[in-house]
Amino acid sequence: MSKTTLFQGTRLSLMIVTLGVISALPAASTAQDAPPIFGDITISQKFSPDPLTVGGMSGGSIAGNKIAGRIDTSTGPCNGFVDETPDHTIKLTSKFNYLKLQIDSPQDTTIIVKGTGGTWCNDDLDGKNPGIVGEWLPGDYQVWIGSYDEGKYFPYTLKITEVK
Questions:
Q1: What's the rounded mean pLDDT across residues 17-31?
Q2: Distance between CA 20 and CA 59 in Å, rounded?
Q3: Can you tell me the distance from the alpha carbon of 137 to that of 92, in angstroms, rounded to the nearest whole number?
Q4: CB of 3 within 8 A of CB of 14?
Q5: Which of 43, 63, 120, 164 is the most exposed place for a label (fewest CB within 10 A)?
Q6: What is the DSSP string of the chain?
Q7: Half-sphere exposure (CA, 13 Å, Cβ side) for 39?
Q8: Are 131 and 111 in contact (CB under 8 A)?
Q9: Residue pair 47/91 in contact by the 8 Å Cβ criterion
C-alpha cells in the first residue's frame, strides 16, 4: 500500500470518527450546529456569520518546520507535526485591515499559514491555542493545524473573525 493511499485512508478514518462523535453529541449540540470539517473557505470583508468556524483534526507525520520551510517566523515557532496537505484553504477576496485565525482545541496545537506575502506560524496565542492576527492581503492561504506528537490527532475548531 502506498504512503498516499495510507495517508488518505487515515484521514478518511479520522473524518468518519469525528462525524460519529459529533452525531453522538446531545440534542443541544447537534451535528447541524457543529462546524463543517476540513472546509475550504472564501470570504470578503464584513462576512457573516462572524466568527466563521470550521472543524478538523490536528496532527500528522511531517514536521511543521519542514512545511513552513523555517524553524521560526515573526508570529512564532513552526512546531508540531502536520499532514502533507493543508487542512484548510482560505481565499480572501479583499484586503483585511484586521483578521484573526484562532484554534480552539482541548489539546495543545500549532498553526502554519502559507500564502500571499509569506509564511506564519504560531504555538500559543491564547493559552495553548495558536492563532495568527493581523493585516491580510487578498489571495489564497493554506492552513495546517499541528499536534506536538507525531501521529497524534485531536479535534479542533478554527475560528475566523474581523472583530478585535
A1: 36
A2: 19
A3: 7
A4: no
A5: 164
A6: --HHHHHHHHHHHHHHHHHHHHHTS-GGG-TTTSPPBS--EEE-TT-SSSSEEEEEE---SEEHHHHHTSSEETTEE--SEE-SS-SEEEEESS-EEEEEEEEE-SS-EEEEEEETTEEEEES-SBTTB-EEEEEE-SEEEEEEEEESSTT---EEEEEEE---
A7: 16
A8: yes
A9: no
- Predicted TM-score (pTM) of the model is 0.79
Q: Please report, for residues 30, 36, 73, 126, 150, the alpha-carbon distance to residue 40 in angstroms, rounded to integers and kept in the order given.
A: 22, 9, 24, 24, 24
CA pair distance 162, 25, nearest whole angstrom:
29
